[in-house]
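Workshop exercise sheet. Pairs work together: one partner reads the sequence aloud, the other fills in the structure field after running the prediction. Swap roles for the next sheet.
Pair: D.N. / O.F.
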Amino acid sequence: MTEIQRGYKVKIYPNKEQEQKFLKTVGACRFVYNHFLERKKTAYIEEQKNITYKMLSKELTKLRKETDWLQCVQFQPLQQSLRNLDVAYNKFFRKQSKFPTFHTKYGKQSFRKVTGWSIDKNKINIGRELSVRFRGEFPVKRQGTLTISRDAVGDWYASTIGIEQIKPPRLKKEGIGLDFGLNHIVITSEGEKYENPHVLKELLKRVQSESKTLSRTMKGGKNRGKRRLVLAKTHRKIERVRINGLHHISKAIVDKNHAMIAVEDLAVQNMMKNQKLSRSIADVSWGELLRQITYKQQWRGGSVAKIGRFFPSSKTCSSCNFVLSTLPLSEREWTCPRCEVTHDRDVNAAKVILKQAGEQLGVERKALVTASAGTKLSSMKHEYAQG
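Structure field:
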């Protein structure tokens, strides 16, 4: 049996009173985040020092006692908001992300609770006299942090991480190579091709029409809120259809039970700079698909190997390793001038990716064995010198 971490997200149904409590908590968390972000910025500019989380936590306790409306909100979500700020601030100085920005009421609305919540049948007990109905699958025993969030449409969700024990299947010895594309989202080294659903392309005219209607409404009016809700529902539909399709494709690939899945290390952010292809690349969601394949493969006890993004997989012959000097994107089939084998461009690339990943892993294992043998030999020499 293997322990895995699985994320759970269910829709919750708060009544009007409970929803008001949620909105107050979200607003209080946003206020705390912005207040102490300004505090940290001012201290760094004027005094050239960083205020630690421990110091800010003491100030938060004092601020809550002095502010009446903050006392009506649970302290733990406020503390978690402060911790989020500390993490974002430290990531900036490690050059892992941009400088944290102030939160607005039009951004993501959520708050977190680490302890003090439980599951009772079809209800989540979040605090005193705050029990909310939910629909879906949720871990009975509390495992991780509970996150309450609200989407752009106005629906509320609860999410957490649970630990499960599963029995991994027996894996095949051979691996499989994957090549990503726009016409076909995935092409395997076995010749299978998975169609790109083009979700955004199918609903693009509706999005453009609804966006145009929204732009014509008066700011602050009732019609603007209605049109914004219609547009938000369309975007949510696009997101759900896309994610559902990616889950089906990733499951179909991982269910083949290959011990290794070889892929190319794609620089999706750099590809998005191409103005002609940026919309299509964003719609196909290669990064999300690779993320799903990676964690599902790990659940089964397999591995995902990545080859270099600059390796000429499309121009290399999978039979004799001959490399073409040029290969236009419009040519979907080509014949190797050395061995005269005709290749499907994408299937050949998947085969080359698998072959290169196998050679790469072979070199790494050989280096690891050599290093281990060298360490053992040096240890024997040291023992001999000591003796």
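Discussion prompt: The longest strand covers residues 2-13. What would you look at next?
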